[in-house]
Amino acid sequence: MDPTLKTRTISRLKDGMESFSPRMRVVAKYIIDNPADFGLDTIRETARKTGVSTYTLVRMSQQMGFEGFDGLRDPFRHALVSSAEYVDLPDWLNELPAAGETGKIQAQAALNSLAVVQRSLEKLSPETLDRVAETMFSARKVFVTGTRASYAMAYYFHYVGRMALTSMDLIPRHVGSAMDELNTAGEGDVLFAITTTPYSRETIESCRFAGSRGVTLILLADSEVVVPDLTPDITLSVSAISTHHFACYSGISAVLEALLSVLLHQGGPATKARIESYESLRNAHSAYWKPKKN
Q1: What's the pTM?
Q2: Which tens digits make up the pLDDT trace of 157-200?
Q3: Are 73 and 38 within 8 A, CB to CB?
Q4: b/e sequence 29-67, b meaning 16+ C-beta within 10 Å
């Protein structure tokens, strides 16, 4: 089988997203976001997970140029077999389930986090990191946004990233609206947005508003297709699958750490001097706890 067929199929799914019917959009987004599950599951299981009928899956396959569901699934199944590799789990992880119910839960969460980080970093290329860094360094202003749980990620990224980029600004602040603070943004500016399923309405609207103003959009999300009519200039796609009700942020953290490492390195002597300046200021005002001397 053509080893590029899976990649070409995903590209066609993305390109055709706006022309698909609503149910087919659901299927296309599911395949793009979950290629491994799609490659493994039966047609009935895929129908259950997507909430559509098996008939819709067959129609989707035929519209994509395949004779049936198996034809559409085969490139994804073949990719799984071709890339599978065995990795030994560490002893401490193998021993956790023996500690009882909590140990089993911890082991499942730990294994999930390790897998999420690996999948997220596998999707990230040096070329993409270079492109993001170049876009940010050349921008007039870099706005960083995220709401609800994603706000914590945005806050941390801004807190460290501003050492390399003094043009970086966290929005919203002071219980305001991100769109209020994007009101004067335009061409030459960048919006770096973070969101995971279920996607924040405010974040999506801020991205759309920024795009209408000519702002370059960099989106860090758990899908390459967040909503059909949103087309970021750069997408950083991560895994956020979790063992509980909410998204797992391990993958997002790992990708942000990689990006921060690049930004701080490329910032050069100016970034180093800025970090030293902040450290001197904090030490002068006793920002950090220190044990009393005897």
Answers
A1: 0.77
A2: 999 999 999 999 999 877 678 888 898 899 999 999 999 988 99
A3: yes
A4: bbbbbbbebbbebebeebbeebebeeebbbbbbeebebe
